[in-house]
Amino acid sequence: MPLDARLDAQDRSFKVVGTRPSRPDGIDKVTGRARFGADMSAPGMLVGKVLRSPHPHARIRSIDASAAEALPGVKAVVTQADFATQDGDLHDTLINVMAGDKALYEGHAVAAVAATTTAIAQKALKLIEVDYEVLPHVTDVDAAMAPDAPLLHDDMVTQGVEPAPSKPSNVAQRHEFGHGDVEAGFAQAEVIVERAFKTEAAHQGYIEPHACLASVGPDGQGELWCCTQGHYMVRNTCAELLGMDISKLRVTASEIGGGFGGKTTVFVEPVALALSRKAGHPVKIVMTRSEVFRATGPTSSSSIWVKVGATKDGRITAGQAELRYQGGAFAGSPVEFGAMSAFACYDLEHINVVGYDVVANRPKQAAYRAPGAPMSAFAIESVISEVADKIGMDPVDFRLKNAAKEGTESAYGPTYGRIGLIETLEAAKAHPNYQAPLGPNQGRGVACGFWFNFGGQTCVNLNINVDGTVALALGTPDIGGSRASMCQMAAEELGIAYDNVRAIVADTSSLGYNDITEGSRTTFSSGLATIEAARDAITRLCERAAIMWGIPADAVVWENGHAKPAGPNAGDFEPLSLAEIAKVSGSTGGPIAGHCEVNAEGAGVSFATHLVDVEVDPETGATEVLRYLVVQDAGKAIHPSYVEGQYQGGAVQGIGWALNEEYIYGEDGRLQNPGFLDYRIPVASDVPMIDTVIVEIPNPGHPYGVRGVGETSIVPPLAAIANAVSHAAGVRMTQVPMSPPRILKAIDEAKANGGPGA
After folding, report:
1. d(CA 171, CA 487)
2. How far is CA 466 from CA 300, 461, 508, 574, 592, in A?
3. Cβ contacts of residue 711 below 8 Å, gap of 6+?
4. Which terminus of the chain, N or C, has less C-beta within 10 A?
């Protein structure tokens, strides 16, 4: 099927798609056979360890590694001088991987060693002498924007500002989106709510730390095994950082013990390769949990101002916001995505959103599911609910009255096609949770969320074996059950049983380039490519059947897993199954395979509505989540269990971010809680059963109507929980996490001011 004719499959009835088969990697994972990042070993393998800066900001005057190099058992020491000079797009990546003139955050890599044992490697680190000139630091986003803030980069001048500034600052770029005239819109408003919000950085909470095994031979050929969401990106980045030809580096993705966007960049992989090249042995690096927290990317912290106006009958007249996100020590916070998605759920005539990308003395941020969107949704959706409260309107009805729909011009530019936001709101209102009674100190919150979704570069091979089974080679690491979904789509197209398809994640030398597993792209783009590869194989199968029958190829059709003669030149032949055609493929032309490479477009935006009930203890400030409902448009749920799992996972991570999780920096600029003991993610006893409703409004850009689901589910929780806590506590909460001390402080301040608050 040509890529411009994808709609023909959306009305079909499915046999495999939409069912809930067992995942192909399930047994290996529950029995411990699956190999993760730290599970690979090699003969002669050395242990790699990284020396990290104890200072949040310091000039590196000199590094003396001579004593470490002389230590018996040490085979290599590397600094930034051992990498290829990078002046282009990877300049910041190189500096983040290994500091040069300055250490820009506590935990910034300064040097690394490879030794025969862990003890020797750790001893060697202590022998490396680094002469630091400690500099003033800044970790708060608002403080970093101040005119007198310590500068991280002397050459950083704010982009996107007219006229262009002449002095450097910590503001990397200004973004602006919107349409209409917000001042005219606010002039029409009868109710206006204006508030400021703060969010702290949160970690993705993956259980497996970053790990890799690198081996570079004397011929310059390299191999790398690592836990990553995108091994092609790792290959290209590492090759450039080390000055290698891409063809000389083969990267294999291990099983991954969680990523959620946090494993979409490189940290230790180039270091392991540099050490291996210098030592002449394989080198393995496994981060400690403390290193993960101090030196890899959480999401941004943010400071946000929002203003919304509405008429008393519930029509929003204008929306305005200013977003300030710190992205760590380097430009590239997700503030642009936050600004684009801020009012994306609403059909508004007057919108203006400005975003500032700010650097601070923290580790370079990484994606966390829908990067940038949860923070802006927290602020926007909190104010939306407050406006609904002030005009005395049901919060779902208020959102329904203003909801984006087909034909709405989005805040960030495009006009929406068919979307499912209204359907998610209607399903939430009809759910029993919305009618459940609330008791004392209990509150209900609702919030909507949006994510763009992404397609991108994808390549798939589908090989038909002579016994009628199918081998599917994918280039997108499986972080949520995608192999099962790909097998389902291949089986659906070919008309064979799910158990007859086996999927692998191929290494970088086996397939063409594949973009990272991110942006909710995998089920959409790899699924689209799998379907196209299956259809390519079906063309080959029909050609082989035509040879077997001695009739023209265009006289053969494929139905229900069989080649059948059709048309006046077809003749009278019994249908041939895939297995029957494959069995004799050697005598009809050789192996049968299908292939697809595509830069997929038409991913289709995604919307969700979350509903949550909480109880707040007015004496301790502790919050208990009583009920939680996720309603989200999946387009078409290929494997409903994994779709529900994505919904539930995003909700649980959102609960943690809203109530407990935060990076805590001291005045010394050092992280005070670099471990799961003090950085508390939710456990089973912290959350209720997460109820889910799958809405299916088909995406016309995919043969089966698929929309990505992995990211939208983390966008509404911060706001939904904040709205519920605000109702339960009787005071509007404007900062997350809403920890017990913050809730008690807000209650006490409201009492001191003579009122309960919002």
Report:
1. 46
2. 52, 16, 26, 20, 9
3. 369, 370, 373, 451, 453, 519, 520, 606, 650
4. N
What gap in Å lies between CA 720 and CA 421, rounded to an integer?
16
Q: Distance between CA 173 and CA 411 in Å, rounded?
A: 19
Cα 373 to its chain centre, rounded Å, is 11
Tens of pLDDT, residue by residue over 450-504, are: 999 999 999 999 999 999 999 999 999 999 999 999 999 999 999 999 999 999 9
Whether 451 and 445 have beta carbons less than 8 Å apart is answered as no
**Maximum distance among all Cα pairs of the chain, rounded to whole angstroms:** 91
Residue 198 to residue 668: CA distance in whole angstroms: 21
Any long-range contacts for 638-641 (C-beta under 8 Å, 24+ apart)?
638/17, 638/18, 638/485, 638/488, 638/489, 638/523, 638/527, 638/704, 638/706, 639/19, 639/20, 639/21, 639/481, 639/484, 639/485, 639/488, 640/18, 640/20, 640/694, 641/20, 641/481
Question: Which structural domain, as residue segments, surrounds residue 230?
Answer: 37-135+209-256+263-295
Determine if residue 143 is left, alpha or beta; phi over 0 gives left, psi from -120 to 50 gives alpha, anything else beta: alpha
If asked whether residues 467 and 588 sit together in one domain, one would say yes
For tokens 């981060």, what's the residue? Answer: 287
Same domain, 536 and 431: no
Supply the pLDDT for residue 756. 60
What secondary structure letter does DSSP report for 82? G
What confidence tens digit (pLDDT) does each residue in 206-257 have? Answer: 999 999 999 999 999 999 999 999 999 999 999 999 999 999 999 999 999 9
Give which of 740, 430, 491 is closest to 616, Cα–Cα.
Answer: 740
Residue 754: its pLDDT value, please? 79
Residue 652 lies in a domain: yes
Half-sphere exposure of 614 (CA within 13 A, CB side): 32
pLDDT < 70 stretches in the chain: 1-11, 755-758
Domain for residue 149, yes or no?
A: no
629 and 684 fall within a common domain: yes
417 shares a domain with 368: yes
Check if the beta carbon of residue 514 is closer than 8 Å to that of residue 600: no
Task: Give me the number of domains the chain comprises.
Answer: 3
Give yes or no: residues 41 and 28 share one domain. Answer: no
**548, 582, 553, 588: which is closest to 570 by C-alpha?**
553
Does residue 176 fall inside a structural domain? no
pLDDT at 10: 52
Which of 600, 623, 651 is the last residue before a domain boundary? 600
Residue environment code for 58-74, b if the CB has 16+ CB neighbours within 10 A, otherwise e = bebeebebeebeebebb
CA angle 337, 682, 432 (to 5 degrees): 80
Query: Does residue 87 share a domain with residue 48?
Result: yes
Cβ neighbours for 497, distance < 8 A, ≥ 6 positions apart: 16, 491
Q: How many CA atoms lie within 13 A of 590 on its CB side?
A: 1
- Total count of residues recorded for the chain: 758
Q: What is the 3-state secondary structure (H, E, C) of 526-559?
A: HHHHHHHHHHHHHHHHHHHHHHHHCCCHHHEEEE
